Amino acid sequence: MPGSNKSTKPDAAPHYHGHRGRLRERFLQGGSDALHDYEMLELILFHAIPRGDVKPLAKQLLTKFGSFSEVIAAPVERLREVRGLGDASIAELKVVQAAANRLLRGEVKQRQILSSWSSVVDYCRAAMGFESKEHFRILFLDKANHLIADEQHQTGTVDHTPVYPREVVKRALELSATAVILVHNHPSGDPTPSRTDIEMTKAIVEVARPLGIAVHDHLIVGKDRHASLKALKLI
Fold it and tell me: What is the pLDDT of residue 40?
């Protein structure tokens, strides 16, 4: 219409237009160190939520759980409490957790356990440190201290897991293991051994020793720290 000042420009693109491509490029060029925690979560959520701005959701997850690691390790039922986070998104988060655990476990399996102790600790903390209940697992080793099996034996309450020394030793004999490393978590985050932890460990040592099975250590893991009963000279 002659004389009209009405703009014919299309609507402006949303503020996050092109954000996904730019974020992927930053990650590919600089790795995870080039991104904030919420941006790493965005990358994970992109596949499950193919359209829209997921930055607010990523930041909401960090606010609720506290850190990138705690988001990834959060129980499924807790993740379902977050509005906007569906099963597809939760599956993406748990795949990342499973992949990290499998990678760390692979490093442990390929090495002589006692000469790669930091890898053992990293794996145990990643696998158990963020659990909301106590879990007890055992690493079974052969004569060369290579990993034969890694098994979770008991799950308990938030502060107690029942462990039966004869069952531990019985399984070691079934696997022809000559040594074990005991591991459990403290959901409180404080890995300080309790009296029960110490007594239970000594009971396993006493049952295992006559059968030629050594207890190399008992690790207690929390979110940020761990304790070694051997290093503390408690076994």
Answer: 94
